[in-house]
Design brief:
Shape: globular
Number of domains: 1
Number of helices: 9
CATH superfamily: Creatininase
Strand content: 5-15%
Helix content: 25-40%
Largest sheet: 4 strands, parallel
CATH topology: Rossmann fold
Radius of gyration: 19 Å
Strand order of the largest sheet: 2-1-3-4
Number of strands: 4
Distance between the termini: 46 Å
CATH architecture: 3-Layer(aba) Sandwich
Length: about 270
């Protein structure tokens, strides 16, 4: 990729003696980027979500002030992607498997003395799992602070660069993700195969929606023949560069805020 995790911020490069010698270990921020291996239309590779999480985190850690202790775990490329299983190439963990995997990673971090852990999720099919893991680990260890966060929810420029329709319906392999991939992994994007496809026959004059406060369950094949939900034909590398920079800066602020965070006490 065009940007990588700085070696001095990559957790697996540490020695056990480095971990044991850390000062103020309870305020060290550990970040777990999480993606998926799943179809992203005919024009994007299977790695999209993991690539975006890794690139955004890399940007943030490269810009993060040296005095803030933060480390990236290896990206977890497998996720719960069963909504895409009807498209070849998708690899999915069950909800239970993903939850147990993250729970055991968290338990290991806690046992090593860490108390602040960010679950940096880039796949829209699994935020509820992040929330369950965070709550259960915090209930088990009241001083373990876990933050189940979605890559795209930090302040960023996508709302300025994408149309209203794309912001609402372009949730998979559309303009935003395709633009980012043109910035991150341009050699693996096939723009000549990009097609626009939006969901048809969505409820109208209804409080129910595909996503939002009152969603209905769906599989991708219910909504798209190509696997694309959005319009990737309007994607550009310039937009991707700008979105990546804004996401990276947003995540730099998040890491800073997590480092400063103190658990509220009644």
């Amino acid at each position: 990729m065009s940007i990588s995790i700085p070696p001095h911020r990559f957790f697996p490069y540490l020695k056990w003696t480095d971990v044991a010698a850390m000062k103020n270990q309870g305020d060290v921020v550990i970040i777990q980027p999480i993606g998926a291996i799943e179809q992203h239309g005919p024009h994007l590779p299977l790695i999209v979500d993991g690539a975006i999480a890794t690139a955004v985190l890399a940007y943030a850690l490269n810009q993060l002030p040296a005095e803030i202790p933060a480390y990236a775990l290896p990206t977890l490329y497998y996720g719960k992607s069963n909504e895409h299983l009807h498209f070849p190439g998708t690899i999915s963990l069950s909800s239970h498997t993903l939850m147990m995997l993250l729970m055991e990673i968290g338990e290991s971090l806690y046992r090593s003395g860490f108390r602040k852990w960010i679950l940096m999720n880039a796949h829209g099919g699994q935020p509820q799992i992040m929330e369950l893991v965070a709550r259960d680990l915090h209930i088990a260890h009241s001083d373990f602070l876990i933050f189940p966060l979605f890559v795209w929810r930090v302040p960023n420029l996508s709302h300025e660069l994408l149309t209203e329709k794309e912001q609402e319906l372009g949730i998979h392999a559309g303009d935003g993700e395709t633009s980012l991939m043109l910035s991150i992994l341009p050699d693996h994007v096939s723009m000549e195969k990009a097609i626009a496809e939006y969901p048809q026959d969505l409820p109208t004059n209804s409080c129910l929606s595909m996503e939002g406060q009152l969603p209905f369950a769906w599989a991708t094949r219910d909504l798209s023949r190509s696997g694309t939900l959005g319009d990737p034909t309007t994607a550009t590398r310039d937009k991707g560069d700008r979105i990546l920079e804004s996401l990276g800066r947003g995540w730099m602020q998040v890491i800073h805020d997590v480092h400063q965070f103190r658990q509220p006490n009644a």
